[in-house]
Amino acid sequence: MEKTVQQLKTFEVKEYSVPLISKDQTSTGGTMTSDEMSKMPGRSATSVAVTVGGVFSQDGEMGSIRGSRTEGTVMYIEWPVRVRGSSKSSAGSYWRVTVVTGGLPAQYGDATGGIVNITTKGPSVNLAPVLNLVQSELLDAFGYNLLGFNIQGPLIKE
User: Taking CA 157 as the corner, what is the angle to CA 153 and CA 158, rounded to the nearest 5 degrees?
Assistant: First the structure.
């Protein structure tokens, strides 16, 4: 055998969509991308999770998944980073939120109820600040106010 070097062509992924049906999928749940989340009234990972069947919610907060105890539900940001305590973060930084309600893969370990896995957006070549402001003071009596700021771009620019 001789050593050879072969130059592979580079390619760039311009668009990705979550497949509608995956034949090898043995778990149940749902996935939402950042485009779908931007059209939702709630912009947190828990507001995405409660839209999936089998997730209990009360007063807009996520409770248990499929009847298990609340401690059986585990939240990850960029698996394997497990979230302890509050999971509040800027929804503008989410790329995808996946909720697994049944048939949990072994990689998640001791979760018995369900999994909420948040994938954040990756680095960007262009500097892109985003300001989100949602207010309902003038439209209803709830007085809902939301202000979010997110910036993405290169760490070092030449």
Answer: 155
- Please state whether beta strands 114-120 and 94-102 pair in parallel, antiparallel, or not at all (unpaired): antiparallel
The total number of structural domains in the chain stands at 2
What is the spatial order of strands in the sheet that 94-102 belongs to?
A: 28-33, 94-102, 114-120, 73-77, 81-82
> For residue 143, what are the CA distances in angstroms to 43, 84, 88, 91, 131?
17, 30, 20, 20, 20
pTM of the model: 0.65
Give me the pLDDT at residue 91, please.
65
Where residue 61 sits, what CATH number does that domain have? 2.170.130.10
| Residue numbers of the domain that contains 139 | 123-158
Name the residue with tokens 């990689």.
Answer: 107
Q: Same domain for 74 and 140?
A: no
Query: pLDDT by residue (tens digit) across 125-148?
Result: 888 887 777 777 777 887 777 777
